[in-house]
Structure formats: C-alpha cells, structure tokens
C-alpha cells in the first residue's frame, strides 16, 4: 500500500473523531468520506492516482494539519492516537515486556484495507467498513 493510500485509509478512520472534536463539520467529513471511499474502494488495484488522493488530502485546512501531524509522528499514527500515547506517559512505568509505542489498537478493513481506525477507549465499538459493510479487524503486527 502506497503512503498516500495509507494516509487516505487512515483519514477515513479519523473523520468521526475530527467531527467530534470540532475540527471538521459533518458535511465536510461526509464529502471526504464519500470521495475517499470512491478512490479506495477497489483496494490497492484501484484506478485512483496519487494526484487524486493528494487533491483530497489537501482539500481542507484541518485535513492538511492532520496529514502533517501523522507524517510528523515517528509511528505514523493519527493525532488522536498519538495524544493517547502521550497521556500514558509521565508517572506511568510500563511492566517488563510491555511494548513501547501507541496504546491504541489499530483496526482495518479485511476486504480492501481501505479504512484504518484506532480504538482509543475500550468502550468504543469497533465500526464496520463504510464501503464493504464488514466489521473492521484488529491488526496484530
């Protein structure tokens, strides 16, 4: 998966959080979801070009800031997942054998990998892929 396709799939999973936080309005998020869904629907073999994806990823100031935050993070995670890892820093000391890095679980669409979503709280319900209607699956890499 190209970096642009990964960013686009990651953005699809972050759109609800961006609306919840007031970074995007619901109409703009729906437009982005529709456009990204169309471009990513066929998985890695899709006809979409890098130029199409770049255009969408540059189409709103909040998205440009979001992309910059993802690219600037050493683990390439969205800002909301990075914030979770930072919140766990401080006086907390990991147990021996705990893996370093982001504390959020990453889920992806098992059909085409066209959505990546981070579970920020255990109470969050894992969503279905909006393109394929299947439950996102935990990435265990």
Describe the 3D structure.
There is one protein chain. With 141 residues, the protein is mostly helical. Helix content is 45%, strand content 7%. It has 5 helices and 3 strands; from the N terminus they run αααααβββ. The chain has helices spanning 3-20, 26-40, 50-57, 61-72, 79-88; strands spanning 105-108, 116-119, 137-138. A hairpin with a 7-residue loop joins β1 (105-108) and β2 (116-119). The two termini are 15 Å apart.
In short:
This protein is mainly α and 141 residues long. The protein contains five helices and three strands, in the order αααααβββ.
List the helices and strands and how they pair.
Blueprint: H1 3-20, H2 26-40, H3 50-57, H4 61-72, H5 79-88, E1 105-108, E2 116-119, E3 137-138
Antiparallel strand pairs: 1-2, 1-3
Helix pairs in contact: 1-2, 1-3
**What's the overall geometry?**
globular
Strand order of the largest sheet: 2-1-3
Class based on secondary structure composition and strand pairing: mainly alpha
* Sequence stretches where pLDDT stays below 50 over 5 or more residues: 89-101
Assign a percent range to the helix content: 40-55%
Gyration radius over CA: 15 Å
Strand content: 5-15%
Main sheet summary: 3 strands, antiparallel
Mean pLDDT: 84
Find the count of extended strands (DSSP E, 2+ residues): 3
Distance between the termini: 15 Å
Number of helices: 5
**Helix-strand pattern, N to C?**
HHHHHEEE
